[in-house]
Amino acid sequence: MSGPAALVVPAVKKHTATVIFAHGLGDTGAGWMPLAQNWRRRGKFEEVAFIFPNAPSIPITVNFQMKMPGWYDITTFNDLQSAHDEVGILRSRDYFNSLVADEVAKGIPSTRIVLGGFSQGGAISLFTGATSPLKLGGIFGLSAYLLLHHKIADFIPAAQPNKDTPIFMGHGDADPTVRYPWGQRTAAALRDLGYAVDFRTYSGLQHSADPEEIDDLERYLLARLPALGEGGAAKA
Predict the structure, then answer these.
(1) Predicted TM-score (pTM) of this structure
(2) Which of 40, 79, 102, 195 is buried deepest, with most CB atoms within 10 A?
(3) Which listed residue (57, 102, 207, 216) is catalytic?
């Protein structure tokens, strides 16, 4: 993709795992770097490298074709689940698959890679993770929704390698942008496809993240990417 290079917060000990975090529409990877930096200050995830990709600047239909960072075009906010820029979605899916492949090439097992994001970034992460040809360590979406829900089954590999990969979803019940029922329907649709989804509701939360949600995400990541210790070998 033609966006700026991804930002990386490297592991401080032996690199045994990676989290790839995708930002939302109009944002950049830098907007979410404080998340990893806070964990660093608290001595968390010392074996984990955090990658914060930057979306390319593209025309966005709902914003009068103004260019801004986006993983795909959005044609309406009335029902994001029905606004499908399939070409853009598949292009971004391929990009995120390439990021995963790059980490595997460095020696990180795919089962020690977690893919997730917020809003539009969460949506592309859920889609990419559910359709990934590799078994991932985890998939998460914050204030997210399901892309190409009418045909996502066509993109899922026959072996469905992530059928048992725990998926974490967090959503505020006061979200005016990615409406709460869309998040609920996304979790239900993924479960219907056989995925294991933990959907958490945050009372009064609008289209953002809050400390309770970040704490839940931290616990999820700790469970999915436990430290292996100095010299510990990551297993595929």
Answers:
(1) 0.95
(2) 195
(3) 207
